Amino acid sequence: MSNLSKVPSDTERDKKNKQGADNALIQYSLTSDDYIDQLLPVIKSALKTNSLNSLIEKLDVASQEKQDELEVVSFGSVDGITSTVTSIEDIIHYSNDLSQQLQEINMQLNKSGIDLSQKKKTALKYKKLYNKINDTIFVFNACLDMLNKTKQVLDLIQNQDFYKALMNANSLMKTHIDEIENFEFTKNIHKSIPTLRSMILEEARDQIIKWITLSVEKQLTTIGETLFRNMELNNEDWEKQCDNDDMLLKFKINSPIEKSLRSTDIKYFDPLYNEDVEIDLSPMFHTILVYKAVDDLEKLKDEFNKEVLRKRDRLLYPITEALANNTSNRKEFPR
Questions:
Q1: CA dihedral in degrees (152, 153, 158, 160; nearest 10)?
Q2: Which residues form a coiled coil (predicted)?
Q3: Tens digits of per-residue pLDDT, 131-157?
Q4: H-helix or E-strand containing 264?
């Protein structure tokens, strides 16, 4: 019987359900813009059931709950705003620091840019100076090279190495360097090259004349004696061969048969280089090379022939004069 009394009746259950619905409607209406229109059904129901006071209490409770929630939200918002403001202030301070650092960096960059520009100008200036120094060194070296070649030609002439002197003079004549072409000393050197060539030819010609005088003329007696002795040996050798072979008697000395049968010593006898005479022929060969290089070998032949004729005349004139005098004396004083 007691348990049955605890079970709520349908009327009570409906009543509680209706109260729960009213509370939900009240909560919803308080969050709506048209909450008056939303509360009309609840007010009408409260008037019908004579529970207006209860409705007012519920509205007060709901309003107080909303006020509490608003205060909580407000206080939380204030804390958030304060925190946000603090963060914003920190950000502003950090931004100011960054701005100042950026200004410093910008100033350093501007300074570095100015320094870099100045260094670039200095580098270009040094590069131009370096190029000028290199050009000057090149010109100096070219001048020294030309002067050395000129001096080398003169030294070779002095050392009587005329062929090399001529080759160097020809090389010097072909040397053309634009950087020093207009220098006065360069022009003078080029103008002097024909004179150097003439000097080389004259010195080479004088050398062969001196060679004839010193090496040949002074040993003419010895040369003649060796030639005569070699001729005697040749005659004796040929007589022996003819005695041994009668077929050779019809051939004379210096005939092709005799020449082919000569002994090696007689056949290859050199009157200018033997046991009694040693004449160096290199000056003659050297002079021939010089004149051949300038394509003037005929002139050398003429000069050589004239010199040989002069020496021949100087050698033979006393003999012919003596013979002539001897002949005239014989006519004046006949035996």
A1: 110
A2: none
A3: 888 888 888 888 888 888 888 888 988
A4: helix 264-267
**Dihedral angle at the C-alpha atoms of 283, 284, 287, 293, nearest 10 degrees?**
-130
Residue appearing with tokens 């005659």 = 235
Q: Rounded to the nearest 5 degrees, what angle is found at the Cα of 63, between the Cα atoms of 62 and 68?
A: 95
Q: What tokens were used for 175?
A: 């040397």
Q: Are 85 and 79 in contact (CB under 8 A)?
A: no
Question: From CA 223, how far away is CA 214, in angstroms rounded?
Answer: 13
Both tokens of residue 154?
Answer: 């003169």
What six digits make up the tokens of 221?
Answer: 């007696």
DSSP structure string for 113-148:
HHHHHHHHHHHHHHHHHHHHHHHHHHHHHHHHHHHH
CB 146 within 8 A of CB 180: yes
Q: Which of 174, 163, 157 is nearest to 291 (CA)?
A: 163
| Calpha distance 313→316 (Å, rounded) | 5
Region 175-194 average pLDDT: 78
Q: Give pLDDT tens digits for 47-64.
A: 677 666 776 777 777 777
Q: What is the DSSP string of 40-92?
A: HHHHHHHHHTT-HHHHHHHHHHHHHHHHHHHHHHHHHHHHHHHHHHHHHHHHH
